[in-house]
Predict the 3D structure of the following.
Amino acid sequence: MSDTPLINLQELQLAARNHALPLEALRWDVTPIGLHYLLTHFDIPEVDASSWRLEIGGLVEAPLSLSLDDLRARSAVEAVVTMECAGNGRVHLEPHVVSQPWLLEAVGTARWRGVSVAELLDEAGVRDGATDVLLTGLDRGVEGDEEQAYERSLPVETLMEGHALLAYEMNGVALPPQHGFPLRLVVPGWYGMTSVKWLARLTLRDEPFDGYQMSHSYRVRQEEHEAGDPITRIAPRSLLVPPGIPEFLTRSRVVEPGPCELVGRAWSGAAEIVEVDVSVDGGATWAGAELGPAALGRWAWRSWFFEWDAQPGEYELCCRARDAAGNEQPLRPSWNLGGYVNNAVQRVAVTVSA
Amino acid sequence: MSDTPLINLQELQLAARNHALPLEALRWDVTPIGLHYLLTHFDIPEVDASSWRLEIGGLVEAPLSLSLDDLRARSAVEAVVTMECAGNGRVHLEPHVVSQPWLLEAVGTARWRGVSVAELLDEAGVRDGATDVLLTGLDRGVEGDEEQAYERSLPVETLMEGHALLAYEMNGVALPPQHGFPLRLVVPGWYGMTSVKWLARLTLRDEPFDGYQMSHSYRVRQEEHEAGDPITRIAPRSLLVPPGIPEFLTRSRVVEPGPCELVGRAWSGAAEIVEVDVSVDGGATWAGAELGPAALGRWAWRSWFFEWDAQPGEYELCCRARDAAGNEQPLRPSWNLGGYVNNAVQRVAVTVSA
């Protein structure tokens, strides 16, 4: 690893505010609060839950204005969901992309509880011609020279499929401020930018929203003038818990010789994970890992295990996931302007001591 | 702010794992879990609470081996404590110091609940000649080429003063893994390196421990060969919530013209805060802020308020705390080899719009 400075102070400010999952926390099925990744575009807003309302309007039969108690009084749904930032892996791209400098740890899994978006939309009555739902958060700031609330739209049909929820609880407690208190959207299988936090409004429309977070951010493109492709579902990725013990500064790993169980997680938004392969020689040779039970449901990461007979020497551990739709992690990153969706395989250097 | 790269990949790895407090979270008296700062020297260990024991031994009359239930059965103490990393402010030092690259946000306040260390030591019976207590954590790694558990010692008298506690709860819930589950030390008023997490053992000794985290880390020195001065209590600091709204990448702030209440927090480990001054012109002129009530107790930060009549233009907001012992924040940093205890005043650039 190079000692050359790569990150400027602006990027460091983002890296400090926005929290990554320490990789050893992959051990937990459900990520403890405080270890789940966190990206806040602007500031975490302070919301008075007693006066807060969720407004549902636009192309609906009966606009709704709901308090937190109103939402809690409705039938609840729960889902364990793995969420990942679309910018995860950005720092591994060359040339360097200046933005939130994620390495590989912008991920986490939570047990969300709330109300079904489909049920609420049914209650409001989606009018003919309504094709999209604009989701508006209470967080405000400036991006691309535009003052804006954080807001994005989704097709009505994506929200009506029945998996998306408006969550007021995370891991059995009230939604923490940083995860969207009092209410956030959770769209299983989609990158995190979709799951709008600190929700204020759902507005039914007859076309997609074209604001900054839709038309500029979160698109895969090679050049500024291109429209590019919108980012939607999470590409497959696997990560392993670095084995052994770390050196404080370099995070280099030392492993005792002998049997060593490598453990990790794999996930994909497009289809379920069907295979994880492991390499201990930097990708020259691969062997299949054992998948754990799919006990957390379709939208959560899958555990995997690999028995490694660790003999003294230097190794580069890699893991690679494949989903049922045939999507597989690439060995090397492919660059794009915003530094999105880099799901190239993880590489962990370890020394097995003599 | 310069766009020149300053941080290398090793430092970024640390910045990603170790979490800072987003400054808007200064608004809460008690920091929500997940927003409190976090520094993990090695890895967060996985601890089986059912087999875990706290061992108290060495120069004691009656060694103790206590389960978590044993500790919970004892009389409980509670304290609201502001904790700060000794390396907070490191990135603002020149020449650059390579380590965890903290800006100014390595701080947080929690309500800790547990047992009094003094009571436990009384129960074990401190033998004549015992001067120090070695506190050993379950986290292991390599630092300065030495494999080690994270461990540090404290004078017996510091622990017998009655304020230090062994905490099994944080903000009313079981200690989260990343904050030291199942048990951690909390020493109010001292920098965070003292409050050893994932405690395994307290060992009474007849001299201070001289391991790596005592003799090398956490000392203020100018050169490698010096012994330097050990770091102990928290130097005074104040921080303000950046007003207005941020730009995503640069974090530059835009404020509406008119009355603007600046709010912040101030704390000191040596003595209570008696004064906070605010400058809107980069430190050229200062005016006193109003201190909030000391309702959280001696060991927590104090809120403060300052009414600013924001007129269109460019400003540099600063705040400076002074404690009852006469300690005051300096206007400029003073450098040391490890990059510790830089409590120079915060500077926040804001634009008041026309």
User: Anything to note?
Assistant: Residues 9-230 of chain B form a domain with the Sulfite Oxidase; Chain A, domain 2 fold (CATH 3.90.420.10). The longest strand of chain B covers residues 132-143. Residues 314 and 351 of chain B are 5 Å apart (CA to CA).
